[in-house]
Amino acid sequence: MKPQVNIVVMVDVIGALSSGTLQDGNLSLVDDGPFDSTGQGTPELCTVVAPGQVVQWTALAVDLQTPVEIKNIRFLGPEDEAVPAPDGNYTEEGEKLDLDVWNGIVPPHMPRGVPHRYRLEVQMYEGEHSVLHVDSPALMCV
After folding, report:
1. Which of 41, 75, 109, 139 has its CA 20 to 30 A from that of 50?
2. 51: phi then psi, degrees, rounded to nearest 5
3. Can you tell me the distance from the alpha carbon of 94 to that of 16, in angstroms, rounded to the nearest whole number?
4. Which DSSP category does 78 fall into?
């Protein structure tokens, strides 16, 4: 088993800012995990992971001149409420960081065979529609 699974978050920033959505081909997620993840290349990626594996998300802009950062990753609860990821990237003061790379460890108690959806928020520039999110990707423990 690989000790780390990488998820690449590719954003068509110009398309997302123009349309105000990460849907309609503006977001593509892929992973390099050793298991059979589903939804490769779509916002519906379900990455199959194992307890103890490190999961690393990296944001890339399709237009290389336009910056994109991961604003936040929150796992969705039973009522589709976003709850903060326990191993998120925080400063010592508890402030969230806006980064192009996020990582966390798959907990040993994560229920197996159940997709755990998460909200992926990305930041592009400033202003209206600069922070967009999708609730469709997931991690699933084997």
Report:
1. 41
2. -55, 140
3. 30
4. T
